[in-house]
Amino acid sequence: MSSENSSAPLVRPLQAEDTDLLYSVFCGLSEWSRKKYRPHDFTYETASKFTGEGLSEKGCRRFIALLREDGALQAAGFCFLYNMESETPSLGIAVSDRYQRRGVGAAMMGHMIQTARAAGKKGLRLTTDKDNIAGQALYQNYGFVITGEGKEDDYLMALDF
Ligand SMILES: CC(C)(COP(=O)(O)OP(=O)(O)OC[C@H]1O[C@@H](n2cnc3c(N)ncnc32)[C@H](O)[C@@H]1OP(=O)(O)O)[C@@H](O)C(=O)NCCC(=O)NCCS
User: Fold this and answer.
1) Distance CA 93, CA 78 (A)
2) Is residue 59 included in any domain, yes or no?
3) How many domains does the chain have?
4) Helix %, strand %, coil % for the chain, to 5?
5) For residue 59, how many C-alpha atoms fall within 13 Å in the half-sphere facing its CB?
6) Whose CA is nearest to atom 33 of ligand 1?
């Protein structure tokens, strides 16, 4: 994990006071990014839910990524692990468009993999649209392989530890 003086992204668990930061990530997602990241809507209510009751949601752990820009920490991305009761939880990830290609996605992937390993999990699973080249490239960098096809023109991908 980086220090606040570093320009490297800082990834940490979502906290109760993060509603506005999380909502700013939602607001920074383009239509394309919203379509590729499907799990939920992008309303302030959803951000409030995740930083409220969502903090104790069974089987789900959410994280936020912060990046230092112009001397201040900006919210750049969001990710989560779910089905944490399973041996192979699944993940979701999104980076605000203006912060993409700056290592934020990679930092969040590293953090989620480390979290899953520390929890004794056997691997991770995800689905990604077939046309999501950026997502597939990111996942393949971490050793994910395509294991099948889903029902929505998407691939199933898996990483086994
Ligand atoms: C996929 C996503 C999370 C990547 O986040 P990011 O912060 O831009 O990624 P990084 O800068 O950390 O890049 C890590 C690697 O991802 C891959 N990558 C990222 N963007 C890419 C692009 N536009 N084209 C091709 N590869 C890309 C590259 O392999 C890159 O490594 P490199 O920089 O050494 O080439 C981001 O594009 C995003 O949020 N997209 C919209 C939502 C989404 O698709 N979520 C995933 C749903 S399955």
Assistant:
1) 6
2) yes
3) 1
4) 35, 30, 35
5) 8
6) 101
From the list 67, 75, 84, 78, the residue with the least C-alpha distance to 34 is 78
Return the amino acid letter for 133: I
Residue 138 lies in a domain: no
Domain with 45, as residue range(s), is 10-122
Give residue-wise pLDDT tens across range 100-128.
Answer: 999 999 999 999 999 999 999 999 999 99
Using a cut of 0.90, tell me whether the model's pTM lies above it: yes
Q: What angle do CA 157, 13, 76 make, to 5 degrees?
A: 75
Note whether 127 and 59 are within 8 A (CB): no
Query: Is 51 a member of any domain?
Result: yes
Q: How far apart are CA 149 and CA 102, in angstroms?
A: 29
By alpha-carbon position, which residue is closest to atom 41 of ligand 1?
A: 33
Cβ-contact 94, 79 below 8 angstroms? yes
* 81 located within any domain: yes
Instruction: Tell me the C-alpha distance between 160 and 147, whole Å.
Output: 11
What's the 120 CA to ligand 1 centre distance in angstroms? Answer: 27
